[in-house]
Amino acid sequence: MEEARKIPNVSDRSFVIATLAELMPVSLQKERNEAFEESLSLISDIPSFSDKMTRYEYLINISKRTNKVFAKKCLKMAFVLSSHEESEEHYSYRLSLIDAAYGIDEDFPDALSTVYNDDPARKAILEKNIIKKKKEAEEKKKFDPEVEDIASTPDQDKYADLAWQMLGKLNAGNHPPVKSSSYGFFLKGVAGYDYEGMYPLLSYYIHMLGSKYQGRNNSQKYIRPIFNVLHLCTTSFSKIYKLEVRDKYK
C-alpha cells in the first residue's frame, strides 16, 4: 500500500489503492474499507471529468458486493458531479449511474434526485432521467429468453436493442446471468432476424452461456461449436460471393 501511495499520477494512485482494497481478505475488512475511502478521497483531485467518472464507477463496481453503503456514497457523489452540466457526456454518464444504482438496490435510483431538493428545475430533469431508465428496467424484467417469443413482435429492433443493453449490464456486473434458461424459444426467434438484429441477440446469448457453463471443458462443449458454425457460414457466404463476382465479370 505504501508503494501505491507513491504513484505520482493521482488517477492511477486512486485506481491501484482501490484494486488493492478489493483484493484484501474478509479478515481485513476494516483495512479494506479504509483503503476504499482513501481511494475515494483522491478522486476530487483528478482534473479530468471523464477520469473522475471512471474512477467513481470502478469503486462502485468493486465495492457494491462487500460494502453497499460505501458504493451508494460513491454513486451519489458521482451522480452530483454528472448533474453539473447538460452535455452529452454528462447525460450519458448520468444514465449509466442510474443503471448502476439499480444494480445495488432497486429503490435507490428514486433517492438520487433528492440531492437537488433545493433546485426544483434540476431535480425535474433528473427525475425525468430516472423515469426513462425505470421504464427500460421494467422492459428488461419482462425479457425472459426462455418464454419470450422475440420473433413475433412487429418491432424486432426493440429486442435487439434490449439484448445489447443487457449485454452491457452483464459485462458491468449489473445484470445477473439467467442460468436456468435453456434459450430454446430465444434461438428460434433469432433465426427470423437480419444480420444487424441477430448480432446483439447472439452476443448476449453467448455471454450468458459463458456465465452458465464456466471452465475450459464447458467452453469447448457448449460455446466453441457456435463459433465453428458461424465461421463455416461466413466462409461459405464469402466463397459464394466470390463466385458471383467472378461470374459477373467474365
The share of residues in extended strands comes to under 5%
The average pLDDT value, as a whole number, equals: 78
Rg calc: 22 Å
SSE order: HHHHHHHHHHHH
Please report the number of helical segments.
12
Tell me about the largest β-sheet: none
Q: Any idea what the shape is?
A: globular
Structure classification: mainly alpha
Give the N-to-C terminal Cα separation.
70 Å
Helix content: over 70%
Please count the beta strands (DSSP E, at least 2 residues each).
0
Q: Stretches where pLDDT falls below 50 for ≥5 residues? A: none
Structural commentary:
With 250 residues, the chain is mainly alpha-helical. The chain has a domain of 142 residues. 73% of the residues lie in helices and 0% in strands. The protein has 12 helices and no strands. Helix 4 runs antiparallel to helix 5 and helix 5 packs antiparallel against helix 6. It is globular and about 60 Å long.
